[in-house]
Amino acid sequence: MAVLALTVLWAGCDDDEDEDDGSQTDECVPDPSYMPDIDPANFSDGVINPLWPLTPGLQTVFEGGGERIEVVVTSDTRVVMGVTTVVVRDTVYEDGEVIEDTYDWFATDNDGNVWYFGEDTTEFEDGEPVSTAGSWEAGVDGAQPGIVMHANQPPVGEPYRQEYDVCEAEDMAEVVSLSESVTVPYGTFDGCLQTREFTPLDEEANEYKYYAAGVGLVLEVEVATGDRVELVGVTLP
Question: pTM for the whole thing?
Answer without folding.
Answer: 0.87
